[in-house]
Each structure stands twice: as structure tokens, then as C-alpha cells.
Specification:
The complex is a heterodimer.
Chain A lengths: L5 E10 L2 E11 L3 E6 L6 H8 L7 E6 L2 E3 L4 H6 L2 E4 L11 H6 L10 H15 L14 H14 L4 E5 L7 H16 L3 E6 L2 H7 L2 E6 L2 E7 L5 H9 L17 E11 L5 E11 L2 E6 L6 H9 L6 E7 L6 E3 L5 H6 L2 E5 L15 H6 L14 H13 L16 H14 L4 E5 L7 H16 L3 E5 L3 H7 L2 E6 L2 E7 L5 H9 L9
Parallel strand pairs in A: 3-8, 3-9, 6-7, 7-8, 13-18, 13-19, 16-17, 17-18
Antiparallel strand pairs in A: 1-2, 1-4, 4-5, 9-10, 11-12, 11-14, 14-15, 19-20
Helix pairs in contact in A: 8-16, 12-13, 13-14
Chain B lengths: L1 H30 L7 H22 L5 H29 L4 H26 L9 H8 L9 H7 L4 H19 L1 H11 L1 H6 L4 H27 L12 H11 L4 H20 L5 H8 L1 H16 L20
């Protein structure tokens, strides 16, 4: 067997105070497929980026064919015959497949498209690809683009291939075709690493599987000797008790009834597929799922920011008792009804706050219409800003500090505080504790619980299953734009949710 | 009639040459993803530095040699323009300053420096009156000797100084390099998707620097042609006018293709002077006709935006800074 094609020993990578990978060990041999399994944020992609030269590990060693390797740039990775197929393709749209394949190569050959096309044809024949080298990338389907990416690394003579979530954008048929190609590459002696969070794919394609959890290396198993339940347990880990104060829901009433909504993207990809559920007042409804399964689209659909192709969202107005369909309303009308979206997307400031404006001005983003005539009304927003700083213990030099200069936790407090101040009837919070320290997180949990106790229907999109289980009353799991299950948070287990999260028909996930 | 048309075409080409230099330079720059709005200023600098170089040489040499008369202004023009582009590159690529603001500042700066040096060069050397480098200008203007013998045909094709032919050669060469060589492929990739280029092992920063500086140097030659050939070694403040902006408009009109920039420049050159060939126009009508190039540019922008053919769009990453992101 000899030495492994690639072996990682004690790899650690930190971003500031966040440890993305801690002491990870991994090895793959030639002629072997290894799955790297883990939830979002478990550090899979970071780890692979270190192999492909995008990041540099803080600690640990990488061995290639038994010899220690130092990889400081993508070019070094090519020299070590490592090829990475990124999840977001790195292709130039207006170039043809052949042009993309030879991009950046310096092999002293004359640049000749015909010659390139011939070599591409040879590779295609060997592994069973089907591609026209002259076709422009922007005219291609996602699957074709991926094929170009794979040929690109093979053309450069890669021996070690890393595929980052390769099936996330493929249909089931395309996935089968891809797996056939991957197996052929393995039989040709290539070492292959597939990053994934889909259990059934792990089981069907890989020889061994390594599991990461929150940047920690959990272990490696032979695929033939394991099963879904064991892998799920390794992936989500044992239950950790957080002691979040949770009260029993009182006086619940159906506030928001979502019936069979369906949303398509501009390209016609299904974002939300027949989603139905009910959000009740006095209750926290958690939404769990792999990132990009449709959480964002769902919240935006309710807030009126996402076009809904079919279905309805009925809002039972507690003041008038009327049942309105939110689908016909503008975002402003929806907000005035008391449906509030406190959205914290991937970048901290995101859609809710303007970084260069101070806290008062950010308060006014919600109240600027209320001024008299053409002049702005500043007194109320300033009082509100003071109140939020005081009640939520926002650490800031004053109300006139630009929000951009506050720490992440304080930014989130300002955002959530403003939405809560409007006395909402429905409060949607997406990843409100992302990047926050423990104490700030608990402040936010308590805030949400207070809102629930005062009769608000709270929808909480979270990442951490332990938090979801302790904070929410019910948890809805979304996978590939579909609801895969709604469970009682008091009785469910992490394994149950984990299985629901990974339960997709394959190929339905859009990012 | 024929000879009027011939002299119109001749004039259009003469007007078009500075535009062609500017457009070719800007296309090379924009292909790397840098939108250099400093081109008008760089062209001013290209002109005035040629004048300064030629002036000093003529001042200290009683009998100037033809080769040096051409070489010295040429080199000073190329160097000064490249230096301007280097300032732009440093600000936008290394310091990641806003490209539009940087470019506009350079244009203001270039025009100011040009007018300052042009206005005071004579007094630095203890003379008065306006600059006139007749000897140098004549060398630049020297056309092929047989042009006069060929009548209108000679007038249209052979009556220009060497810089005019160089402009066409550079444009064709730029088109060839961009489309047929690895360097061109890599450069286009940098302008379209620097992240992709980076991942493919291309040195994005180096490509941007080199393309911007080469582009600046080429554009500067447009200024040199204007002062040395078109007005024969003289300088008038603001004499170059808005030709720099026209050159940037041609980049759009020519759909970022240097080969196409050649006819486009001549068309714009023709539109620029056509008012003098239409008899009996009022001065207001003349100004209106001078607007034609800009109107045409707007129409072209509308058409390419509406048609959405991907090959005809500007480089996808044009105007945006690039840095390899760390989380």
C-alpha cells in the first residue's frame, strides 16, 4: 500500500479568536475515496482550503506521498498535484471551456485551442465526461460547469482531488453520473476527498469517512462497517445542556398560517417547495436545517421580500380579528401589521443596519416616515436608542457612534432591540447569535423568550441544535426547500433533527 | 467633390489618432478590471512631457539630430504617462482606493500640470511668447515621401506622421495579444474574475499593474501625437480639449475590442470635425453636431445593455477592487 497520498497531522487553524480547525488528522491513499462529513461550520471547507493553498495552517503538518509539504499558494498545490473543485465554481463566464481549462498554465506549449481541445477530448474519453470544449461557460448548465472544473484539475495532472459539496447543485441523475466518474477516477489510482453533509451519498460512494464537528476531528470509519445512525451521532455529538430558561407556551393562537407556498428563483430553480406550517403566538418556532436550504427565502417570503409563485400566507390580526393574505401586501404594509424581520445574514451588518450611521440614525430607518413635513423627528429615535443601550447593555461610547465600530454582539443587540421596540406580533430572527459570545447569546435568548411570553409569535432560525432544542417550543426542519418534519422541542433528540436535516431526495438544495 | 471627401477622411483620421491611442490604452487597462478615468489627464501629461523633453533638447542643442528629436519626446512621454498610471495603480490596486475618484483626481491633476508647465516653460528659460518646437514638430510630421505624388489616394493613406501608423499597429497588436496569446487570456481572466485567475495561479496584482501602466503609456502617446504632429510642436492651454473623454467613450463604442477601436476612432474623429465640412451652420448648430459622438455612445450603451450578449459586456469585475479574502 505504501504511504498515503496525503496525510494531515495535527492541523490547527484560527481566525482571530475563532478556532476553525483544532488538531485535525486525516489521510487518504491512492485509489481511495474519503468522505469528509460534518455540519455547516464544522470546518470542512477551511481544512480543504489549507490543502489547496488558500489558507495556511497555524499548526500541524501536511505530508504528500510520505514527504512533508509546505503549501502557501494555489500554485504550490498544483505543483503537488492537488486539485480542488470549489463549491462556487471558479470559472470565467465569457471564456470557453478550453480557455478556462488552460487558464494560468505555463507549460511552454504554444497556446492553441485545437490542441487543448484534443487533450480535453482524451481526458473526457478516459473518465466518461461529455463536454464541448468550445462552448462558453455562461451557456452551460451547472453540471457542465462542474465537469469543466473537474477536467481543469485533471488537465493539470492532479492526483489528489478534493470536491467541495459537489452534489449540492446537481439533480439526482447528474449526481449518479458524477459518482460514476469519481469511481472511475479512483480505479485510475487517484486519491479523492468529497466534502459533504449528505449521509446517503457518503454511504454510496466513499470507502472511508472522516467526521468533523465544530472544527474538532471526531474520527474515521470504514464506510462498509457503519450506518446512518452512527454517523449522525458522530456529526451532531452528544447533547449539551445549556440551561436556557424556557417557559410553557400560554394562550397560543394561530398567528401566521403558511399554506403550500412555492418560490422559484429567477433562473427557475425551486427555492421553496410546498412549504406549510403555522406559527402560534406565545410560542417560539425554531427552524433548523443545513445552511442554504431555504431558511432565508422562507423568512423573506413572509416579510414580502421574496416573490411567491403559489400558495398563501394568512395573518390573523389580533387587533381586528381579520385574516389577511400577506402575499398581496407590500413589505411596508406587512411591517405595519406587526410582522417584524430581524434578519442577521452572513455579514454582520447585513440587511438590517447601515454601518456608517450611528445608533439613532439606524433607529430612524424604521421611523423616518413619522417626521413632521420635510424635517426628521429625532427625539423619539434618540430616546429609543438610549433605552436599548440601557436595557440590552449595549457597549458603546454613545448614541452617535457609527454602528460599524461596535462589536458583533452589540450590533445584534441594536438590531434586535429596534425590531422588538416596535411591539411586533410576529418576530423573525435569523441567526441572531451568530458570532456572539456566551453572555450576549443568553441576552438574546432571554429577549426572545420575553417576547414569546408577551404573546408574540417568534420564529427563530438557528444553527446550533442544542440551542434550538432548549429555546424553542417546536422545531421545524427544512431541507432542500421542503419541510422535512416538525417536532416537539421538548421531546426530540439531536439525532432525530440531524436525520431530518440530511433527509433530502438529493439534488434539491440550492445555495 | 472627391477631393473634399478625401480631405474630410484625412482630417477625420488625424482627429481619430489621439482618440485611438487613448481608447487602446484604456481597453488594455480595463481588461485588467481597472476603470482608469485618469486617461484624459494622462494624455495631457503625455503631451506636455513630450513638449518638455523636446524643448530642453532643442534649447541646449544648436543643431538637433532627427533621431533624438523624436526619441527624447517619445521616451519622456512614455515614461511620464506610465508614471501617472503607476500612481493610479498604486492607489487602486495596492491601497484599494475607489477607482472612479482616483481616476478623476488624476485627470484634474494631469490637466493642471499640463497647463502649468505649458504656460510657464518659456519663462523658466527666460523667454516669452508661446512654445514652438518647429524642428521637432516637423520630424514628427514627416510623412512618406511619395504621398504627394499619389493625389487623393496618397492623402488618405500615406500623408501621416509615423505616430499615426504606430497607433494602428499598437491597436492591432493589442487585439492580437488579448485574443490569441496566453498573456491575453490571463489578463482577460483577471478583469473578468480575479478570484478565478488567482486560484489558477495567475499573479493578479502584477497583471493589473502592468496592464494599467502599459495602457497609460499607450494613451499618453495620443497626447504626444496631438502636440507634436497635429499642432506641430506647440502648446496651447486646454488645447487638447475633451478628447480624453471621447477616447473613453470609444472604449464602450468599440465594445472593448482594440481592432474595432480603429474604425470607431476614425468615425468619432469625423464626427468631431464634420461641422466644419457642412457649409452655412450657425455656431449653435455646430456645437450641437459636436455632441454626436456622445449621443452615439449613449445609444451604443443602451443597445449593448438591452441585447445582453455576454461577449459585448464590459469586463465583469471592472471598477472593483480585488483582495484574496480571509474570513
Amino acid at each position: 500500500m505504501g504511504s498515503a497520498a496525503i496525510e494531515l497531522k495535527g492541523i490547527t487553524k484560527r481566525f482571530g479568536s475563532v478556532v476553525a480547525n483544532n488538531n485535525v488528522n486525516l489521510s487518504v491513499s491512492h485509489g481511495e475515496i474519503l468522505s469528509l462529513l460534518g455540519e455547516n461550520g464544522s470546518g470542512k471547507t477551511t481544512l480543504m482550503n489549507m490543502i489547496s493553498g488558500i489558507y495556511h495552517p497555524d499548526e500541524g503538518q501536511i505530508f504528500i506521498n510520505g514527504r512533508e509539504a509546505v503549501i502557501t499558494s494555489p500554485r504550490d498545490a498544483y505543483d503537488y498535484k492537488i486539485g480542488m473543485i470549489h463549491q462556487h465554481f471558479k470559472l470565467v463566464d465569457v471564456f470557453s471551456a478550453a480557455e478556462n481549462i488552460v487558464l494560468g498554465l505555463n507549460d511552454n506549449r504554444k497556446f492553441n485551442v485545437n490542441e487543448v481541445s484534443q487533450r480535453v477530448a482524451q481526458i473526457s474519453e478516459k473518465y466518461g465526461f461529455d463536454i464541448d470544449p468550445r462552448k462558453k461557460i455562461y451557456q452551460m448548465s451547472v453540471s457542465e460547469k462542474q465537469t469543466v472544473e473537474i477536467i481543469k484539475v485533471l488537465y493539470r495532472g492532479a492526483d489528489i482531488l478534493i470536491l467541495d459539496e459537489p452534489t449540492a447543485v446537481l439533480t439526482p441523475q447528474e449526481t449518479q453520473k458524477l459518482f460514476a466518474v469519481i469511481r472511475r477516477m479512483r480505479d485510475d489510482g487517484k486519491a479523492i476527498i468529497i466534502i459533504t453533509h449528505k449521509l446517503h451519498e457518503v454511504l454510496s460512494v466513499s470507502d472511508r469517512v472522516s467526521v468533523l464537528r465544530r472544527g474538532e476531528y471526531v474520527g474515521t470509519l470504514e464506510t462498509a462497517k457503519t450506518n446512518e445512525t452512527e454517523l449522525t451521532e458522530m456529526m451532531v455529538g452528544k447533547k449539551i445542556s445549556l440551561n436556557i430558561a424556557r417557559s410553557e407556551p400560554k394562550n397560543t393562537a394561530d398567528r401566521l398560517v403558511v399554506n403550500n407556498i412555492r418560490c422559484l428563483s429567477r433562473e427557475g430553480v425551486t427555492l421553496l417547495d410546498n412549504v406549510s406550517f403555522t406559527a402560534r403566538s406565545g410560542e417560539i418556532l425554531g427552524i433548523a436545517g443545513i445552511a442554504g436550504s431555504g431558511q432565508r427565502e422562507l423568512l423573506e417570503a413572509i416579510a414580502g421580500l421574496q416573490h411567491i409563485d403559489s400558495g398563501e400566507i394568512i395573518y390573523n390580526n389580533p387587533k381586528t380579528g381579520a385574516a389577511d393574505n400577506l402575499r398581496d401586501k407590500t413589505p411596508l404594509q406587512i411591517r405595519d401589521l406587526g410582522v417584524r424581520l430581524s434578519f442577521v445574514p452572513e455579514d454582520r451588518l447585513g440587511m438590517g443596519l447601515v454601518g456608517n450611521m450611528d445608533i439613532v440614525d439606524n433607529m430612524m430607518l424604521r421611523s423616518y416616515r413619522r417626521g413632521k413635513g420635510v424635517f426628521l423627528e429625532r427625539r423619539e429615535p434618540r430616546e429609543l436608542a438610549d433605552r436599548i443601550i440601557d436595557q440590552l447593555k449595549v457597549v458603546t461610547p454613545g448614541t452617535s457612534t457609527p454602528v460599524r465600530r461596535l462589536s458583533g454582539g452589540n450590533v445584534q443587540k441594536v438590531l434586535v432591540g429596534r425590531e422588538i421596540a416596535a411591539a411586533p406580533t410576529v418576530l423573525m430572527a435569523a441567526y441572531p447569535v451568530r458570532g456572539l459570545d456566551i453572555n450576549s447569546s443568553y441576552t438574546i435568548y432571554n429577549l426572545l423568550t420575553e417576547q414569546k411570553e408577551s404573546g408574540v409569535a417568534v420564529i427563530f432560525v438557528g444553527e446550533d441544535l442544542d440551542v434550538l432544542i432548549e429555546l424553542c417550543d417546536r422545531i421545524m426542519v427544512i431541507g432542500g426547500g421542503k419541510i422535512t418534519g416538525i417536532v416537539d422541542a421538548r421531546r426530540t433528540t439531536k439525532e432525530e433533527i440531524g436525520l431530518l436535516m440530511t433527509k433530502t431526495d438529493g439534488g434539491q438544495i440550492n445555495e | 467633390m472627391i477631393s473634399t471627401i478625401a480631405s474630410f477622411i484625412n482630417a477625420a483620421i488625424i482627429q481619430g489618432i489621439p482618440l485611438l491611442y487613448g481608447a487602446t490604452g484604456e481597453i488594455i487597462t480595463e481588461k485588467s478590471g481597472n476603470l482608469n478615468l485618469g486617461i484624459p489627464g494622462i494624455m495631457y501629461i503625455g503631451g506636455i512631457s513630450g513638449i518638455v523633453g523636446g524643448y530642453i533638447y532643442e534649447y541646449y542643442t544648436p543643431e538637433p539630430v532627427a533621431a533624438l528629436c523624436i526619441l527624447i519626446p517619445l521616451l519622456s512621454s512614455l515614461l511620464a504617462s506610465a508614471l501617472m498610471a503607476l500612481i493610479y495603480s498604486f492607489l487602486t490596486i495596492t491601497l484599494r482606493a475607489n477607482q472612479n475618484v482616483t481616476g478623476l483626481a488624476l485627470t484634474t491633476f494631469g490637466v493642471g500640470v499640463g497647463n502649468f508647465l505649458g504656460g510657464s516653460l518659456q519663462s523658466f528659460f527666460g523667454k516669452s511668447g508661446s512654445i514652438s518646437l518647429l524642428t521637432t514638430g516637423n520630424y514628427f510630421k514627416t510623412a512618406l515621401p511619395f504621398a504627394d505624388d499619389l493625389g487623393d489616394f496618397g492623402k488618405v493613406f500615406f500623408s501621416y506622421g509615423f505616430l499615426a501608423y504606430l497607433a494602428v499597429i499598437i491597436a492591432i497588436a493589442a487585439g492580437f495579444i488579448l485574443n490569441k496569446t496566453r498573456v491575453g487570456l490571463n489578463l482577460r481572466a483577471v478583469g473578468e474574475s480575479p478570484a478565478t485567475a488567482d486560484a489558477a495561479g495567475i499573479n493578479v496584482t502584477r497583471y493589473k499593474y502592468v496592464a494599467t501602466c502599459v495602457g497609460g503609456a499607450v494613451a499618453g502617446l495620443g497626447g504626444l501625437y496631438f502636440v507634436m504632429d497635429y499642432i506641430a510642436g506647440a502648446w496651447t492651454n486646454d488645447g487638447f480639449g475633451d478628447r480624453g473623454w471621447l477616447a473613453i467613450a470609444i472604449v464602450i463604442f468599440a465594445l472593448w475590442k482594440p481592432n474595432l477601436a480603429i474604425p470607431c476612432s476614425f468615425i468619432f474623429g469625423g464626427l468631431y470635425i464634420i461641422c466644419t465640412y457642412i457649409p452655412g451652420l450657425s455656431s449653435a448648430a455646430k456645437e450641437l453636431i459636436k455632441m454626436l459622438p456622445y449621443l452615439v455612445t449613449i445609444v451604443v450603451l443602451i443597445v449593448i445593455s438591452a441585447r445582453k450578449r455576454r461577449e459585448n459586456q464590459p469586463p465583469a469585475h471592472l471598477g472593483l477592487p480585488y483582495f484574496r479574502e480571509e474570513r
